[in-house]
Amino acid sequence: MTRGAWPAPALSAGRALARLGRIEESERELRRAVHAFEELDDRWWMALSLRHLGEAHLDAGGPSAAVHPLEQAREIYRSLGNEAGLRRTLELLKRTGA
């Protein structure tokens, strides 16, 4: 991703790759999105990227790998007062058994 480029394509690619079961590639794209949104100080998109990263791990059968990004997303959603994002993240965290 070039510096200054809008990172949403990395988020979309990461989600699509996860649906295809290509978890390593998905994780790489989703982490790129998280990092880029962090650099932009866009916490809403950062939380969404983290939530999708956790969900990709869950769908691939890796609940332990899902916990950390989901916990990060939970804290961001709380700080933003985003009840819908928080609710969905808490549902996913339940699936991890954490």
Mean pLDDT across all amino acids: 91
Number of strands: 0
SS element count, helices: 5
Sequence stretches where pLDDT stays below 50 over 5 or more residues: none
Separation, N- and C-terminal Cα atoms: 34 Å
Rg, nearest Å: 13 Å
| β-sheet strand percentage | under 5%
Q: Globular, elongated, flat, extended or rod-shaped: what is the shape?
A: flat
Helical/strand content category: mainly alpha
- N-to-C order of helices and strands: HHHHH
Helix and strand arrangement:
Elements: H1 8-19, H2 23-39, H3 43-59, H4 63-80, H5 83-96
Helix pairs in contact: 1-2, 1-3, 2-3, 3-4, 3-5, 4-5
Key structural traits:
98 residues, mainly alpha
Can you walk me through this structure?
With 98 residues, this protein is mainly α. The chain is 80% helix and 0% strand. It is built from five helices and no strands. Helix 3 runs antiparallel to helix 4 (63-80). The chain starts with 7 loop residues before the first helix and ends with a helix. The mean pLDDT is 91.
How would you concisely characterize the structure shown here?
The model has no long low-confidence stretch (mean pLDDT 91).
